[in-house]
Each structure stands twice: as C-alpha cells, then as structure tokens.
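Entry for EPS complex. Fields follow.
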Amino acid sequence: MGTWHWLTAGESHGPGLVGIIEGVPAGVPLTRDMINEDLARRQKGYGRGGRMAIERDMVDIWGGVRHGRTLGSPVALTIQNRDFTNWAESMSPDPGQPDRVVTRPRPGHADLVGGIKYGHRDLRNVLERASARETTMRVALGAVARAFLRPLGIEVYGHVTRIGPVSAPAGEWTLEDIRRAEESPVRVVDDTVAAAMMAAIDQAKEAGDTLGGTFEVVAFGLPVGLGSYVQWHRRLEARLGAALLSIPAMKGVEVGTGFEQAGQEGSMVHDAIWWEEGQGFRRLSNRAGGLEGGMTTGMPLTVRVGMKPLSTLMSPLGSFDIETKEPFLAQVERSDVTAVPAAVVIGEAMVMLVLAEAILEKFGGDSLPEVQDRIRRWQETVREF
Ligand SMILES: Cc1cc2nc3c(=O)[nH]c(=O)nc-3n(C[C@H](O)[C@H](O)[C@H](O)COP(=O)(O)O)c2cc1C
Ligand SMILES: C=C(O[C@@H]1CC(C(=O)O)=C[C@@H](OP(=O)(O)O)[C@H]1O)C(=O)O
C-alpha cells in the first residue's frame, strides 16, 4: 500500500463535508486562506443555481497543520453546509420518519439505479451523496496538493473551452493566459466568446434546459519521467483519466490534441525531438500534451474534459414515480443551468491529487526540503542525459 491516500465523506444537505489526506510531507506551507481561495473559485461561474447563493464555503483544519506548516501527519479538513439549517430535521442521523421523500427519479442522475442498487425507496438517500456537493471537499484536498506542488515549481490551472454550442478558439496557452480566465464569469481565456457563452446559458435557462461543455487543465513545471510504461495502472494518462472521469457528469477525457489525432497523419501529430548543449532534450511542439508512454515529457501536461448537460431539468423528460408507478413530469425547485466553470476547479484538484502522488512515488521524501533536493538532483541528471 502506498503512503498517499485521501477520502471524503458527507451528504449534500447534511451538516457538512469531511476529508482526510495522508502522505503530505512535513514542512509544506499551508493555511486556511490558501484552501479557501480554491473553494471560492469553485463557487464562481455564470449559470449556477440558487444553492451557490446560500453557501460560502470555508474550511476548518482539524489535524496535520501547525502554525502554517504541515506536520507530516494526516491533514483533516471539514467544511460546513450552510444549507443544512434548512434540512436539519430531514437529514438528522437520529431515528425518526423522513420527510421530503423523493420518489421521482430524474433521467441522467443517479436516483433510479442507486435506489434499485441500495434498496432505497427514498431516493434522497441516493442523491444526497451522488450530488456534486461532494466535490467541494475534493477541491479543498486538491488545494493541499497545490500547496505541496507550488514550492516544487509546479502550477496547475484550467479554463473553459466550450459551453453548449459556443466554443472558444483553440490555442497553446501560457500560465499567465490561463490565469487571466479567472476574470471571466465563464472562466474563458479568450473573452471575445464570453458574451456568446453567457447568452447561450440565458437561452437554456429560459427554455428550462441545461448545458454541458469542455474544459482544459494544464500542469506547468513538471519534471520528466512521472508515471511509467511498465504496468497498465502506472501509465499517468490512465490515472488522470480515471481521476477526471470520477467527477460527476464528466463523460470524456482527451490528452493533448486527443481525438483530433485519430484523423491525422503521424507526421502531423508527433512532436519532434531537439537537443542543445547545456539544455538537454526538449520538444518543438506539444501535441502529445506532455505525456509519452504514460510518462511526463517535461512539456506542459494538457488534458481536456467533456461534461454532459446537467440532468435536473426545469422542462423535464419523462419518468415514472417509483411508488405509484405513474408517469410524471417532474417539478423541480432549483438546479444549475451549467457548471462547466466550476468543473474546471474540480478538474484542477483531481489532476493535482494525481500529480502529487506521482511525485512522491518517483522522489519520495518525508519533508518538503527533502523532496525539493531530490527533484533538483534529478533535473541535473535529465539535463546531462
Ligand atoms: C459542479 C457541478 C455541479 C452540478 N450541479 C448539478 C445540478 O445542479 N443539477 C444536476 O442535476 N446535476 C448537477 N451536476 C451533475 C450531477 O451531479 C451528475 O450528473 C450525477 O451525479 C450523475 O452522475 P453522472 O452524470 O456522472 O452519471 C453537477 C456536477 C458538477 C460537477
Ligand atoms: C451544492 C453544490 O452543487 C449542487 C450539485 C447538484 C447535483 O445534483 O450534483 C445539485 C445542486 O444542489 P441542490 O440540489 O442543493 O440545489 C447543486 O447546487 C455545490 O457545487 O456545492
């Protein structure tokens, strides 16, 4: 068993969320503000519904950090659900009769299959945990991974590349370009398309519909040789793909130019190798997205993710009540129209959690200075290869 583990617990309308991450080296600068910054980023984005107006996500640190530095012990985090005050009775862990029972499964959500699988006749018992509320804690844990990666010179940020029918122009963006997307209400780098994206969201909202989209996450500053080709589960794209597809509503992952490569000739796709005295090897382009043979090449790692349109529809699709077996057209209280801008931050978190683990596998080390020293020596080895 490796030393890097993390888990989350908590329901969407319960008291809050809990997360534990183990394996973070000692001496990593980490504060609540650093985690809260990413939590606030996840809450932003045009197209979110009423729930985001209620929540103001803030973390509490219950273990693993003292005076702004990690101790090497498990880092334990909690985040309160402010909405719990409206659900305290319904979500009580104490014995009693449940109210606000859900018997009408939404097509596209976990409701029906989860109910059948676990024998829940109140589908709230399914949707409470299937909800993407849980990703709040993933972002908090991802911020811990960010705090570890940053002093190693590694930065991971993402941006929206499509919402519904509106695509952003393609480009190989720098870290500064991608950070600029933060100013945009739809988290897009080229803001000439932001207005069209927001108009598409307004139109979908008016029609009682929802929109999906795509986003890209890029990791800068990675050393050569994270991951491996020697066993299927050690290939880094396999681990990134699994991590990204574990986010609710994510249905596809591309590495580099991905699906486009399938229709192109090899000479158009592969990245030529270049060598220079004192610099060592590098690539003249990065269509591979920073991975070859399941290992990092040292170029920016680029993954693109496809998110489906959300399943809670104001103008619903057909479904049947599980008790009356009557068809119904669901009446819905609230839902997001799109959550692609928020999904970017969740995608960053998942990528960082995978990369931090891959760093520790390759370099090991119980303290940040130890890991830094090992990476410095490795970079010299790579330059001299
Ligand atoms: C940030 C975020 C917000 C979401 N908000 C909603 C929502 O408001 N309504 C909804 O039906 N689904 C929402 N979803 C998607 C559902 O959680 C997801 O579709 C559901 O868990 C079923 O899983 P699957 O789509 O992966 O099959 C959201 C997903 C994310 C990542
Ligand atoms: C709570 C969050 O997202 C929720 C994810 C979600 C779903 O079905 O996945 C449904 C909505 O929740 P509610 O049913 O309470 O309105 C979203 O707001 C969040 O992102 O923090």
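NOTE: Residues 12, 49, 51, 55, 131-133, 136, 248, 334, 336 surround EPS (ligand 2) (CB under 6 Å).
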